[in-house]
Amino acid sequence: MDVQFLGGAGEIGRSAVLINESLLLDFGMLTDSPPQFPVRTPSPDAVVVSHGHLDHVGNIPALVSGDARPPIHWTPPTYELAMTLARDTLKLHGGTLNCPFTETNVRRVTQVSETHGYRESFEAAGYEVTFYNAGHIPGSAHVLVDDGETRLLYTGDFHTDDQRLVSGTTARPDADAIICESTYSDVEHEPRETVEDRFVESVETTLWEGGTVVVPAFAIGRTQEMLLICEAHDIPCYVDGMGKEVTEMLGQYPAFVRDADALQRAKSHARFVTGKDGQRKRITDQKAAIVTTSGMLSGGPAMTYIPEIRANPMNKITMTGYQVEGTPGRDLIETGSAEIDGRVMPVSARVEQYDFSAHADRDGLLEYLESYRDTPVVVNHGDRCGAFAETLREDGYDATAPEVGATVTVY
Ligand SMILES: [Zn+2]
């Protein structure tokens, strides 16, 4: 198989892997200003998508332009998330060069969509393809591609540890070659329970003291994880932003979450913010946690909450995910002030950072790859792919880290 990396090699964002010019795995976008897309838009016979994050599905509607109507294969939650993200991109960038598709393209995606569960093999562009639970977000999949001679495993993003929302991956299908993500290849996460305990204690302390806690969280996965934690520890909470819609949607796919009853309880426990009649401003003086997008303070209702709570040192802002350089969230952590809606605002409220990662860390990646000792490994999806491939080679693996645009042949 000839495997070309159209994006997501040696970088995070715009993932796109093309097999023999006919089967495309993922077609994402890199959020930046301006956004970046895969190096070219191919005309595949079929498309298979690993999971519903912007850097893996963001540019999918661009594949159904002109006469092209390749079937798009994914799990049901991935399909739903892709549609939510596409509509959001249209809202943010529609009609500009920063949006390479139109509303018509997005509608066509529905017509060519084919959904599959885990471990149900299907045919795509002449290959036999199977999804395995990747433990990253609901619906996330490892993708096994079999052409009858070679079995290629594309890990997509994955986590080896359990989160409250999804269990860690346990699937280790036989493969002749593996494309492995490496987002946190040089990081060791603090144990999840420890992170959660620190977070809960911090939030509870602030609420007891009469403060409000704003919890910026990514809409997909992280918001639901935070709501599950709030329910488990009986922390009063509100939820706002795109995470509301995603929470409602995931409730319809119990087979793709770890504990559907727990998610249902978390949904009932949280108060959904409508934003009507100045509700947002009103709830900022209540002793509650407000879980809201955007996770990096670059938009969403967080833009209303932060200015309201920032001046009172009794309040708190708890960042729950990685903050990309140049985002207001990163600036806030590093400098104590952030640019919100074009205004630089000093923040007296306390700011904290918690690592609720949905990716395997260094030990998790190595543990996963232990099952693939004799399998050539192609490292992608990371800022330090080359260094991780080197580590693997020193450990006896056949490992490489191609650059964007490169083609590797696997047997
Ligand atoms: Zn992801």
UniProtKB/TrEMBL annotation:
<dbReference type="GO" id="GO:0016787">
    <property type="term" value="F:hydrolase activity"/>
</dbReference>
<feature type="domain" description="Beta-Casp">
    <location>
        <begin position="223"/>
        <end position="332"/>
    </location>
</feature>
<protein>
    <submittedName>
        <fullName>MBL fold metallo-hydrolase</fullName>
    </submittedName>
</protein>
<dbReference type="InterPro" id="IPR011108">
    <property type="entry name" value="RMMBL"/>
</dbReference>
<dbReference type="InterPro" id="IPR050698">
    <property type="entry name" value="MBL"/>
</dbReference>
<dbReference type="InterPro" id="IPR036866">
    <property type="entry name" value="RibonucZ/Hydroxyglut_hydro"/>
</dbReference>
<dbReference type="InterPro" id="IPR022712">
    <property type="entry name" value="Beta_Casp"/>
</dbReference>
<dbReference type="GO" id="GO:0004521">
    <property type="term" value="F:RNA endonuclease activity"/>
</dbReference>
<keyword id="KW-0378">Hydrolase</keyword>
<feature type="domain" description="Metallo-beta-lactamase">
    <location>
        <begin position="13"/>
        <end position="203"/>
    </location>
</feature>
<dbReference type="Pfam" id="PF00753">
    <property type="entry name" value="Lactamase_B"/>
</dbReference>
<dbReference type="Pfam" id="PF10996">
    <property type="entry name" value="Beta-Casp"/>
</dbReference>
<dbReference type="InterPro" id="IPR001279">
    <property type="entry name" value="Metallo-B-lactamas"/>
</dbReference>
<dbReference type="Pfam" id="PF07521">
    <property type="entry name" value="RMMBL"/>
</dbReference>
